[in-house]
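For the sake of transparency, this paper describes our internal protein records without simplification. Because each token names a local backbone shape, the row as a whole describes the fold. One such record is reproduced below, unchanged from the form in which we store it:
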Amino acid sequence: MSDTTLHELCKGFGALLSRSKQPNFSEEASRLNERGNLPLHAACSFQANQEVIEALLRAYPGGASQPNSAGNLPIHQAAMWQAPVETVELLLSRYPEGATVRNQYGSLPLHMAASNQASPEVVRLLIDSYPDALHLQNDDGMTPLDLALADESASETVVAMLEGRPPPPEMSQRQKAEKLGERAIALERKLTSLREASARQAQDLSDAVAAVRRLADRFPHALYAAGVDPNELEIALSNSITDETGLPGRGSGKKGQTEAEAIILDAVKRRSAIVVRDSRGERMAETGVAVSAAGPRDRVEDLLSSIVGLDHIKSQVRGLRRTTEICDLRESLLPHALQGRRGLSSIGSNQALVLSALSDDPGRPRASHMVFVGNPGSGKSAVARLLAKAYHELGILRKPKFLEVERMDLVARDKHATIAKTQEVLEEARGGILFIDEANMLGAGSKRSKLDYGVDAINEIIASIDANAQGTGDSNLPLIILAGFPVEMHRFLHSQNDLRKRFPLTFEFPDYSCIELAKIFVDLAHAKGFDLEDALTVDVIGKLLEDETTAVWRSERNGRVSEMLLAGAKQEVRRRMREASFIDEDAGEVDPQLIIHADLLNISQADFK
């Protein structure tokens, strides 16, 4: 809830006192806004007089002890916003324990008063209400005295109270003038510091604009992939470059954040807020923004969105993507910043150190060889096919090629033929992904021969991986994925220790839940041009599968359950059309592309047992 009328009236007091006579004033005084503030919080923040505070407390007596979203009581707000001492005194009379309450940052009302130039009378009142507060620290490890000393404009009287000593005598006119002079000098130092920071900020913005231009020219996909339009970003950065006076064109970012970083983050947030995807990975418009405003499609995210579940694999791809984009950025910056190694002597030592580190970077990252383990139909080969496309889009693979093989494609009747056959497969899959299904069968000997030549195929794969790692082999060695069922693959890798060392990543493909199977079915149906009746939602389909099938039955099939369900649905649609044609010569009332709930119910009760 945003600010109510009463919250606004608390910022100007005459109208509020008139409103306090209305019968619903008590109910209004207890309402919270979106920040968890009562009207009493608002009144204390705007230095309301005692009459206003009394009216609000009469209407809602519990208001004095109610914290807002930040844990601040009204007395915290009064101490922070320099409310009159009469207000603080009234709040303490209604809720004396308020002086001992900490907000979510560990600050007591005395901390708030000390750091916000509260009057000496308010500080004295808070000290008398809770003397131990003088020595207590907030979550930043600061006592009230520390906070007052950090504020160069703090009153000497307040500092003396917090130190536990008598306040100093009143200063003469000359002493006051000297004090004001010291404060003016301090303000000049702060202004000089701000101007210097603005100058550095202007240089950061100029560098950022140049980097965006170079990155957009050399790797246009990188910024779009991060959800940023380079043209919009360049305009935002250019508009914020400082003017001739040296003052920034816009406010700085959050603490610890440069303005360039804040602008880039704002650009990402703006674009990510207007782009959403449906269950099939398609982009849709949100909050009235047209889909065309979203810019070019993000092919990699489209591919990942088409995968149901398996978030751990998606995270791996996204992490590799970020590393790749950082590498692209390094390559876009280095040629313009570093004109040969001999140029390092002409620039600053810090810049030379950074540029030297950039030039020594090992280059684009490589994807690790992987092991996929899961039950039948759990999506191992389907995900591997998508990885080939995704890694190609990221520039990690030279080609989007996907080659699926098994033991018979690698193993021959003797050792030399097996090595040659394995080399041919590796050559065919160059630059793409080689997917070895049921890889554990390489460790199983032939029934017709006591000799096991699958070991020779394994050794050839190991030799190729090692040669590629040492830079002596084919630089386009395919990314190799070993796949198989969980028990068999764990037993196989345990017996092949050398092979296991070359495959550092193992991904387990869990059995699909009923909801995930329902999502896969919906995606398949839409891909085949079918529509589902409105009542046939993912939850309804998932409940149907859960009621009509067993976990063991589903684990033996997984994604194939969705394929079976779609095949059966097609037959049910045809059956309904035939029945309609017998009953009525005009069978046009049956939509040949619409699947209804009865279709799936008939299939599950007849076939899924």
